[in-house]
Specification:
The protein is an alpha+beta fold. It has helices at about 1-15, 60-70, 95-105, 125-130, 170-175; strands at about 25-30, 35, 45-50, 75-80, 145-150, 155-160. The protein has a single domain, classed as Glutaredoxin. Helices cover about 30% and strands about 15% of the residues.
């Protein structure tokens, strides 16, 4: 058993060398500026992989609604467009930003398109999908999976794509984190 734990510990150090919490990652905003996740330190975050041509795309509206509802309490929705599932995010960053603003009034932070699974998975999502949590661990299954992060940068909960942003389960978890 100790050998397995030691091997897993070495693997974790290699895989997650970029961060002990989400605050240690740096990404590009959808408009291209580098953003240190440490800018959100002390806030509750909902990290979501998004896509513009998915059956769950209407969740942008619910994400915007919960952002508006809780932002005064240092809550942020962070959207990460990804084209990993059925080519459902084919647009450029500019096209994605325009689509979100025009169709859903999105003004929560959006980041540059990245990969959330596979060989080219972004280190942030590699980190998030491998963390133990109360819900489930492992690869993202589809667009609009949600990761709830506490004020210390730790993963609290993870929600599948079919969990609507304004569902009782998700909003209760956000309120508890706040």
């Amino acid at each position: 058993m100790k050998t397995i734990i030691a091997v897993l510990s070495i693997f974790a150090m290699v895989t997650f060398e970029n961060g002990e919490s989400v605050y240690e990652f740096k990404l590009n905003s959808i408009s291209g500026e580098q953003v240190a996740m440490s800018e959100y330190e002390g806030s509750v975050l909902l990290i979501v992989n998004t896509a513009s041509e998915c059956g769950f795309t209407t969740q942008y509206e619910g994400l915007q609604n919960i952002y508006d509802r809780y932002k005064e309490s240092q809550f942020y929705v962070l959207g990460f467009p990804a084209n990993n599932f059925g080519g459902q995010e084919p647009g450029t960053n500019e096209e994605i930003q325009e689509f979100c603003k025009v169709n859903f009034g999105v003004n929560f932070p959006l980041f540059s398109k990245l990969s959330v699974r596979g060989d080219d998975i972004h280190p942030l999502f590699d980190y998030l999908t491998n963390l133990d949590n109360a819900d489930f661990t492992g690869e993202i299954g589809w667009n609009f999976e949600k990761f709830l992060i506490d004020r210390n940068g730790n993963l609290l909960r993870r929600f599948k794509s079919n969990v609507h942003p304004e569902s009782n389960d998700l909003t209760r978890a956000i309120e508890q984190a706040l």
